[in-house]
User: Fold these one by one.
Assistant:
Number 1:
Amino acid sequence: MKTVVHKANTRGHANHGWLESHHSFSFASYFNQDRMNFGMLRVLNDDIVKPTMGFGTHPHRNMEIISIPLKGALSHKDSMGNQRSIEVGEVQAMSAGTGITHSEFNDSKTDDVNFLQLWIIPEEENVTPRYFQKEFDAEERKNEFQTLVSYIHKPVEGSLLIHQDASIKMVDLEEGKEVSNTHNAGSGVYYFLIDGEISIENETLSKRDAVGVWDTEISNIKANQNSKLLAIEVPMN
């Protein structure tokens, strides 16, 4: 087994006033040669957007983009004709493919929005752009992994689909509970702890810490307190 540990306070940080962002991997003005990616996972940003502010219309191409709101609601509009609000409990997945433009705004006049945005490198370029959005039942991830996103050629029922042999799972673990996660051959799993405290093998993670695990078939996880964990499985090459 191989591991890499990324403590929360070692992430890149940018505060633009309207936006505060923590970068698990090199992004925009944050560059760290040792933090370029984890396999096909290229970006994991933890963004806080101030009331009435947001990202104006901007382009994306040949990337799988997943957004997970943790607090508040994010208003989305894109060149495919989608115009929707993304709320806590929902997940959005876009295949940018041949190219899209979109905008994201916090429409609240009083409350911040906090959301995670992930970019996964696709296995195939220049696909037709696609958009998915879905609300997931929190009861289905209580002490067991719930698949939010899966591979379009090996779809998991009820999940959103992307053009990469990858998956994104979430689990809400109660204190003292244990769970195991099996890995596909040739893949690694990047565990990002949204909240709480857990132990994975010999590592203890606190809020917003992460550990990447590969060259193993399974990870064993125990919650030291009530915890919310994201597991991002991607090909390593």
Number 2:
Amino acid sequence: MCFANLTKHLVILIVLKKKIFNILKYITFTTLGVAMFWLVYREQDFKAIWHTLSNDVNYTWVIVSLIFGLLSHISRTLRWKIALEPLDEHPRTLNAFIAVMSSYFMNLLLPRMGEFARCGLLAKYEKIPFSKLFGTVVTERIIDMIMLLFMLLLAFVLQFDQIVQFGQNNPQVIENLQNILQSPLLWIALAGVILALVLYIRISKKRGKTNKIEAVLSDFASGIKSVLSMKRYKAYIAHTVFIWFMYYLMLYSVFFSFDFTSHLSPLAGLLTFVLASFGMVAPVQGGIGAWHFMVEKALGLYAIESTNGKIFALLAHSSMNLMVVVCGAICLILIPVINRHYHPVRNPNSTLDF
């Protein structure tokens, strides 16, 4: 009896510890983002910024920017469906789109939470194993990182002088990136996690026991293999290129909203986009602070005053995230209503859609 009570209390303690850790993590990320935002805008006159945003902005181009963003989200949805085809999974396009938009919304609440929410929603309403979905999403992230590196290389070749100047003007950014990548603790921890998983699986096999980790890894591998074995890989690649082109146009179109950036070339937009994308990698909600800093510094390479660069970053970032918040919230509200009478169909020959 005492042992049972002790076990119960230990389980409760572990659950509470996990919840407390998640709360502390959320508070830390939020505080970091707010602090970075404050550091960027602490010396700005917000009345002057509001005056500029109220009187000197062509909001038609902001609307155009949001249309490009919406097209990228639709394309990401269709690309995800293509990745799921080799797994014999054919979710409704509307459910997949809602899951994608919800993931962006959740990432604003807690960094990296969107991927889990996205897979969780589709798993719930389409009855698809979570681990399979997560495998395809991880593959997406790898491919998107490759695309980002490709665009960085493209910007590096086409805007070499500006990138060198950025490194000279912001040595702390380059130094921090180098410290992270060269940290032995990072690679030791990664190797330790992989070794622990391998040992656990091997020991379980020798004892003739099944384990959840192996089952999850099997489904996870199936998700990754799906991309490599898909029949419509050309369409997958085309969607990937389209998504990133829309991301680029989403930012560059905002250039035409201001007189002080409307003259900048598409290459200036490319370098700004690439540097801003690395700001989104920072572990803060929606890249707040880090994204604004990178955009301001990138525009500074083209003689855009710091204040104007910050105003531009504020408008571009706010409009993108406003769309995510509105669309994401609507999607989360609608998905249980839309699927109230829906029962997933597993016929691979069906063209189940909206």
